[in-house]
Amino acid sequence: MGLYDNHNHSQFSFDGKATSVADSTASAVSKGLSGICFTDHCDFYVPPMKAAFEQLVPEVFEVESQQNEIDRIQQLPETKAAGIQILKGIEIGMQKPCREQIRQHLHTHQFDQIILSLHYLDQTDPFYGGYYEGKDWKQAYGHYLETILEEITWAGPDFDILGHFDYVVRYARYPQCGIRYQDFPDILDEILKVLSYEGKALEINTKTYQDFSGRTPVLDENILKRYQEFGGEAISLGSDSHKAEKVGFHFEHFSEYLKHLGFKYEAHYENRKLQMVNL
Questions:
Q1: Is 198 exposed, middle or buried (0-12, 13-18, 19+ CB in 10 A)?
Q2: I want to staple 244 with a disulfide (CB 3.0 to 4.6 A). Which of 27, 39, 57, 213 is the partner?
Q3: What is the C-alpha separation between 74 and 79, in angstroms, rounded?
Q4: Residue 229: which region, alpha, beta or left (left: phi > 0; alpha: psi -120 to 50)?
Q5: How confident is residue 1, by pLDDT bands cut at 50, 70 and 90?
Q6: Using one digit for the tens of pLDDT, what is the confidence trace for 226-276?
Q7: Helix count (H) and strand count (E) of the chain?
Q8: Minimal CA–CA distance to 204: which of 175, 232, 174?
């Protein structure tokens, strides 16, 4: 296939204990991928409502241990024979109170690619439903997008990929099962301008577009078309896998979908440098 899965979690993530670098790499090889990047979770602050369910606070992985394991797997004879590239990454959670801690962490370590994602906001966690209380769908989705814009503007050069921009839709209970361009044109324009003008990639997180409690989120192609209108070409595919069998989830479908929209390449980063491979 020649594609890269740019968003995967391993045994080093708090919620990746069911998989490993070795198993997910083997899965990527079996699916014909050219590369896989391990972007384990790093959130320095966890809302109390979620912390009550977890033992690990904050959700920070050991970078050196993760990268040493990646190096070990990359040097195995079977990995070399397969010709797959294993990249070192991080999924850093956007959190305004932790900005300087985040920046220090990213400057202390070296990564191939940095995904910037929004998991927690307003002292809540959408996964557990608290974020949606007291908000209608437009308030919930709009505030999420406004927070993304604020954080990517602050982050500047310290990220490469905007992760799952529509994560907020996954766990909602509203009839509206997607973020549509027509509902949030102004804020989406500003987000897409930052990405396209600064050479950042927009992630299609393939995990999002499946059934969640009877609702299947929908990706609005008009957002991707608008990104193109601003000159954006860098689309990153990420399975957001937490189990080896989920590596490359729905990649064939979304690579064809992107080609149908006129995209020619998939983006990934090596040593923070943009690389484009044919879809």
A1: middle
A2: 27
A3: 6
A4: alpha
A5: low
A6: 999 999 999 999 999 999 999 999 999 999 999 999 999 999 999 999 999
A7: 10, 10
A8: 232
Q: Do residues 15 and 45 touch, judged by C-beta distance below 8 A?
A: no
The conformational region for residue 110 under phi > 0 = left, psi -120 to 50 = alpha, else beta, is: beta
pLDDT confidence tier of residue 204, bands split at 50, 70 and 90: very high
Instruction: Give tens-digit pLDDT for 13-61.
Output: 988 788 999 999 999 999 999 999 999 999 998 888 777 666 556 789 9
Number of Cβ within 10 Å of residue 23's Cβ equals 17
Question: Hunting for tokens 């394991």 — which residue is that?
Answer: 69
φ and ψ of 175, to 5 deg: -65, -25
Closest among 236, 160, 238, 144 to 194, alpha carbons compared? 160
Give the separation between CA 145 and CA 168, rounded to whole angstroms: 9
Alpha carbons 117 and 129: distance in angstroms, whole number: 18
Residue with tokens 């797997």: 73
